[in-house]
Amino acid sequence: MEKHQCNSKETQQLERKIKFLNGVERRKEFPPEEVLQMLAIKKTDNILDLGAGTGYLTIPVAQMVHGLVYALDMDEKMLEIIDCKAQDESITNIQLVKGSIDNIPLPDDSIDIVLASLVLHEIKPLSTTLQQIKRVLKDGGQFMCLEYEKNESAIEGPPMQIRVPSLVMEQELKNAGLNITQKIFLRKKIYIITAKK
Length: 197
What we know:
alpha/beta, seven-stranded mixed sheet, 7 helices, 7 strands, about 35% helix, about 25% strand, globular
């Protein structure tokens, strides 16, 4: 009986997570197509979406390129959702990768663009993951991260104590040897930083 309750609780948590990741509000706040336009994406690019979730960025970016789009997530269920969406949209260039973003299971210098949307605040230490991102990026490759600013007035998003302030993120990127190319804020609560290797 206890096991069933546990599974039921896990199912409810998963459903809440999926609802948030696919939410209409999220799409209004930062439409994926608009966000992706900040990058100079070429048809031939190979792209890695870290902590891909339900494919919020994976699906639209896969429709923009002929190269491979790697959807990396630790959660098998998230990868299954991406797979279903890809099949529904007849998208064939998505490669599902089960793994951790602090030990990316891809070769050195193999990726043109790495995306990290609302996932880096979950990682400690951040420096390890940023070194992994730099390792898989080709020379001149682009990195884009979206995170909630540590702003006491913003109530949505992750708990305040785990957020990474934009100034800290900028410093971490510089420490990792990445060159920041752009920083913008969406409604003062989400920041987008792009950088190059």
